[in-house]
Amino acid sequence: MVDSLYYLPNDIGVSALNCSEAFRLLSPQEKMYSHYLSRATWYGGLIVLLQTSPESVDIFVLLQRIFRKQTPEQLELVAKAAGLSSEEYQAFLVYAAGVYANMGNYKSFGDTKFIPNLPKDKLETLVKASQAFQEKPSEMQALWDSCSCLMYSLKDRQKQLGLGDKGITTYFSGNCCLEDAELAQRFLDSKKLSAYNTRLFKKDDGGKTCYEVRLASVVQKDCAVDGECESCCGSFSFENKEFIVKRGDYNPLLEKVCHCLQQAQAYAANENQRKMLEEYQRSFTIGSIEAHKEGSRYWIKDKGPIVESYIGFIESYRDPFGSRGEFEGFVAVVNKAMSERFAKLVSSAEVLLPELPWPREFEKDTFLKPDFTSLDVLTFAGSGIPAGINIPNYDDIRQSEGFKNVSLGNVVAISYATKKEKLTFLEEKDKDLFIKWKGPSFEVQVGLHELLGHGSGKLFVQDDDGKFNFDQSEVINPETGEQVSSWYRGSETWDSKFSTIASSYEECRAECVGLYLCINKQVLSIFGHEDQDAEDVVYINWLSMVRAGLLGLEFYTPENKGWRQAHMQARFVILRVLLEAGEGLVGLEEVTGQDGKPDARITLDRSKIHTVGKSAIHRFLCKLQVLKSTADVEGGRALYQRYSSVSDEGAHNFPRLRDIVLLRKEDRKMFVQANTRVDGDVVELVEYEGSAAGLIRSFTERFPEDAEQVEVDLLALNTKDAPCWC
């Protein structure tokens, strides 16, 4: 049962992300713009391999070299001749597809390692029988030797991503621990440097500890560049430790990103897009987050584009400390019909915001109406594809200048298509209703979560000049009845202050906003739901959240009492809050399944959602916001960790329920994405079948002009840092 955590099953869902109709409707200029932006995102997405594990690059290059020489169909004949069964060969294809889909050998959703589900000697036999190995045996042998042991290793520390002895990370050298991460954050704050585009390497310099902060950039010079008054690089003494700030991380990959962004500029629709791409290039060239912020400002101003995109070091979920951004980029086409609904939600936001349970002083002074569009994804490069996004993540911009929301419609459509026989933990009477309304209810939840969840709430700040953005003599903390006594100071941000719990805590707050406001009739009407249908949407949205809370236990690691996925921890916390509400609102019991094995059953009393349920979320959501607004890290941690606790004390044995969840878990689907290529003046969309073989082919054809050089660059970057992970 436990071992199934660490491999992908042969029957895992693999679906093609369909965007052909959306792409067909683009003008020739828009297609060219999309093509070059897609090229930039694919090159940048390779950075994730270097941000995941020491072996990810070598595994990726090994697979690329095998499959660039032989298609999955051709290699199958080799596998058969080498003595592999059809199940073993399929397991290899699924593993390869998993590495491509997750950009490494750790699951993007849950941060768990996955290994090939076939014997190591069988895989070695196949590798050595491949055409790639036959043509270059010494190179391929070296690649196999460099990654095969780690590819299969399930030592405790290597089972999941984490910091120090809790797991594997390449955001920090292998000798770093939490104290080093905290020290580095204080140093970065003191220099007003963002951690988003950095990695930290701890070195011994003649018996003295030295920390190297490495900025992602094309430029490798550490002197002042491109209009800087003074360089942010150099050697600094801080708290009796030496820090060296250097440029040049991921240099050859970012060079390719910048080249493609420059090509895209020629096809930009307006000045905002041109300026945006210019600033992104500057950011990636010199390693400047301030330039990326400037690009994000132009991006926010680019209202209602036909082709939407974003690129950079964005989400901090996979940094064990919660401050460094994983590289991602997307290119997508607006779905006009669905976007109209989201536009109506934006128009209603100023009416809906006062409905939230915190005092007016805890809300932003003005609601900056964002773009909110439904998009069909053409390209999404990174470790995984979300259903919705609220960006940029820079607090100072979000608070005073605005943000954008996107719902990724073709992702939602595939992700939440569910077969009745695979619906776990629900009563039979709920299953048909769940299948009917899961998609529509999730659209409502995503809309509220992104727009009014992540888009709401004020942070109390005292800037470097001592100026407050609130009246500290008047604002009362509703939880204590006293004046607000804590706030963010200077360059402190939500991520830097709340660090390890920031991502999950914020996802929990946004999910609670979705639950709280989805019962509003005006919201339901915007999405086209009235009367009984509206009540069914509410019921399934709440039931789905409760079920997701139980499913979240898959992403808890009892050995280190840690959570590996921010959203699933958030949903478990919400389940705990609703169970605590009592009065029969939520039922959770262990039962015996029809197969005679342990099972669990969830119930939700729909008649109590508007009363008991709403009241419980009201109280909890207010606490979350007040603690966030006032930078009360101690109170925030105590509250969140109490509800995140997985124990056997009380009415429910959560460790035993976790075993049941693992017994009946279903792996997340993988997406096959199209490629674009230019033929003369025409951009063609190249699509692939929704299978492991199709996913593999999409990647082996992704870098047609320079695949070998890309692999050489990746291996060189990886080899250079190899000693740092020991």
Question: What is the topology?
Answer:
Elements: E1 14-16, H1 20-24, H2 28-45, H3 47-52, H4 56-69, H5 72-81, H6 86-102, H7 120-129, H8 131-135, H9 137-152, H10 178-190, E2 198-205, E3 208-216, E4 234-238, E5 241-249, H11 251-265, H12 271-286, H13 289-301, E6 307-315, E7 326-334, H14 336-352, E8 371-381, E9 388-391, H15 395-400, E10 404-408, H16 409-415, H17 428-453, E11 461-462, E12 488-489, H18 494-517, H19 521-526, H20 531-551, E13 556-557, E14 562-563, H21 566-581, E15 586-592, E16 598-604, H22 609-629, H23 633-644, H24 654-663, E17 670-672, E18 675-679, E19 682-686, H25 692-700, H26 707-721
Give keywords.
Fructose-1,6-Bisphosphatase, Chain A, domain 1; Dipeptidyl peptidase 3; cytoplasm; 26 helices; 15% strand; five-stranded mixed sheet; four-stranded mixed sheet; 3 domains; alpha/beta; 726 residues; hydrolase; single chain
* Radius of gyration, taken over Cα atoms and rounded to an integer in Å: 25 Å
End-to-end C-alpha gap: 31 Å
Q: Which CATH first-tier class of the largest domain would you pick?
A: Alpha Beta
Arithmetic mean of pLDDT: 94
CATH domain topology of the largest domain: Fructose-1,6-Bisphosphatase, Chain A, domain 1
Largest sheet: 5 strands, mixed
Give the overall form: globular
Architecture of the largest domain, according to CATH?
2-Layer Sandwich
Number of separate strands? 19
Helix content: 40-55%
Count of DSSP helices?
A: 26
Low-confidence stretches: none
The amount of beta strand, in percent, is: 5-15%
Cofactor: Zn(2+)
EC number: 3.4.14.4
InterPro entries: Dipeptidyl-peptase3, Peptidase_M49
Main location: cytoplasm
